[in-house]
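notes to self, project folder thing:

trying the whole complex as one job this time. last attempt i did each chain seperately and stitching them together was a nightmare. two parts in total, labels are on each line so i dont mix them up again. if this works i'll redo the older ones the same way
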Amino acid sequence: VRRGQPAAHRRFEAMHAQAGWAGSGSRFGLAGAVLAGDLCLSWSDELFARAGFAPDAVQRGRTVFNTMRTQLMGGQYLDMLEQASCAQQGPAGAVERARRVVRFKSAKYSIEHPLLLGGSLAGADEALLADYSTFGLAVFGDPGETGKPAGDDLREGKRTVLMAYAVASATTEQAAVVERLLGDPALDSAGVEQLREVLVDTGALAGVEALIAEQVDVACQTLDAAALTEPARAALHELVVAATTRRS
Amino acid sequence: VRRGQPAAHRRFEAMHAQAGWAGSGSRFGLAGAVLAGDLCLSWSDELFARAGFAPDAVQRGRTVFNTMRTQLMGGQYLDMLEQASCAQQGPAGAVERARRVVRFKSAKYSIEHPLLLGGSLAGADEALLADYSTFGLAVFGDPGETGKPAGDDLREGKRTVLMAYAVASATTEQAAVVERLLGDPALDSAGVEQLREVLVDTGALAGVEALIAEQVDVACQTLDAAALTEPARAALHELVVAATTRRS
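result (full assembly):
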């Protein structure tokens, strides 16, 4: 979804309302969006097969493509589970669980698998593919979004790596603030500020920034040691910068 | 969904309730079911590719497989559109529209494409594939479900071919009965009986039965003329019987 554009289910719902059709507009919207997603999922597969690669390259790429789809869906489900069960499970292990969600839902899909897919299609050897994995998971393995969380994420109650760090080292008082405010749809700017203070005061922000710096080091060392030529190496270095710069 | 088994979204919802998780159980259920569906859609594709057919057979079959997926999703969307807009569009063209939904949502997916898929994998020639299409669309092209509609279909307000026939030749009084009762979730057995009377009295039931008989003729003639051997011919004749027997 591009920012500023309504999501698919909202557009189908609006179409239903505008036409004055019978039945529930929100159900129509949901069903339409699910079908549009299914179509895109099917078509991505057809586009890949018909993109003009040699049959044996397509064959190699398919293994990555299939793993990517399955792990993305698994990651999305892990995310749902974590949002639903995080409060119940408590702070122990929350950082590791949040990192796992980011890894499966974002890091693999956005960085690792695209690199592996390109590498496989071009006939990269096992060693280079392994370097792509290490690089891809490091550069995006944490924490997804850096800097201050947006008010909307806090209102939604998103269980991010940053929040998991905060909860893991919160005092009783700070934990109570998170419990009370995180996920409150009516959270105002004073509430947002209070939550942000907890993120700073617990050391969560500093902790995540240290983690990112550590992962950037891993990514850069991997790049430097990998059997890469230019312009690939430079492009991947730029990716590290793009993926880890604070959005602030 | 097997009868008696809750649908996927209900099972995810029940899991959410049983665990006492946070957030909306119905949203969790919907999202879980969508992901399960996406996984199955992806895996169907992988199973097809790895079923052990020769590469050139898989290639031929993929064209059918891809068309099948896309047309099924299109058929499902046509069905949603028809349910939502049927009352507004009125009786003109309703029979044709309802038949088109059955054709894309059921006939192609349940009969035509499976025959074409098997035929393509086995190397059938164009003429036999054309006969499969004619046969497949005839035997299931109308009207999906024969005999008396179940109370649940009437409560859901399902716009079937049978109902389209009824509306097309209803008197003002009969049309008012349909308008008032079809899709009423609280419809009782007296209401079900009233709707069924309209289906009989308008001649819709007889009309649909005549249509089925006509289509069975087309299917059987196509079978008899097709370049088929036994046991294929006999099996397809049995399919005609199975697909057109009243469930009553």
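what i see at first glance: DSSP finds eleven helices and no strands in chain B.
need to look closer tmrw
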